[in-house]
Every structure is written in C-alpha cells, then in structure tokens.
Amino acid sequence: xxxxxxxxxxxxxxxxxxxxxxxxxxxxxxxxxxxxxxxxxxxxxxxxxxxxxxxxxxxxxxxxxxxxxxxxxxxxxxxxxxxxxxxxxxxxxxxxxxxxxxxxxxxxxxxxxxxxxxxxxxxxxxxxxxxxxxxxxxxxxxxxxxxxxxxxxxxxxxxxx
Length: 161
Fold this sequence. Notes:
Strand content: 25-35%
Oligomer: single chain
CATH topology of the largest domain: Histidine-containing Protein, Chain: A
Structural class: alpha/beta
CATH architecture of the largest domain: 2-Layer Sandwich
CATH class of the largest domain: Alpha Beta
Order of helices and strands: HEEHEHEEHE
Largest sheet: 3 strands, mixed
Shape: globular
Domain BON: 11-77, 88-156
InterPro entries: BON_dom, Lipoprotein_DolP, Transpt-assoc_nodulatn_dom_bac
Distance between the termini: 19 Å
Mean pLDDT: 92
Helix content: 25-40%
Pfam families: BON (PF04972)
Number of strands: 6
Number of helices: 4
Number of domains: 2
Protein name: Jg12666 protein
C-alpha cells in the first residue's frame, strides 16, 4: 500500500493527464515526461530551446492544486536521440526498479524512477533516512548511471502537508 491517500493518487493522476494534454497541444508531449507526487510536479526530458522548456513549466503551473514545479528539462542542441540512448535509459530505470522490488527494507511502491541521458530521477515518499539512503545507493551502483537526483520526501515530513 502506498503512503499516499486514494484522493492524492487520483489528484496526481488528473494533474498528469492535464499537463500531458497541454504538452501535446504544444508539440512537447513526446520529449517531456511528467511525474507528480502530492501536487509536486517533476518535468524531465530534452528540448531544443529555452522557450519550449518555459512553455512546459507554464503548462504545469496552470494546473489546479500545484504546490511545486521542478523543471529538470534539459535544453540541448537539436540531435536525434539514438535508440541506443533511449534503450540504455530504459534499462537503467528497469534495473533500479527491479532491485528496489527485491529489498525488504524498501517500500518500492512509494518510488518513481525515471532516467534521462543516464541521469536517474527519484520521486516519492521514503519511510526514513535509512531507506532513502539505500535507494540512492542502489541507483548509483547500476552500470551507466551518471548521476542520481532525488526529489523524495520523508513520510512524516511537514513539507508533505
């Protein structure tokens, strides 16, 4: 069972759908991933100019019940992301998620793991500092990971409410 209420889960899903709809309207849907946890929005991906990066952030802020928008969208020169890059990112995400599932001291359902350009983004709710430290250590040990960025909150944090 996740450490989020059913209402939070529904609200977050609704926010993701609305942001994705806005991204689709502006031609940004395929290059940006949206993750939401308790009204906190994480935007990740690559675009070719700052205007697109800001457009995505504005779309996110326009939604109701948004507490924070974390814009990790990278502005990179126009290039074709190779299938190899996309595959490697997917494999990194899958390996971390699988490793988390196998750990008794980690409530893996509370974590969202995403990888862009071999940078791993974690979002969710940690039971305590030891659990988060273990999750970050697992992510760092996966071959190919350049960096781990955590936007995880602690279960009893005042920032969650």
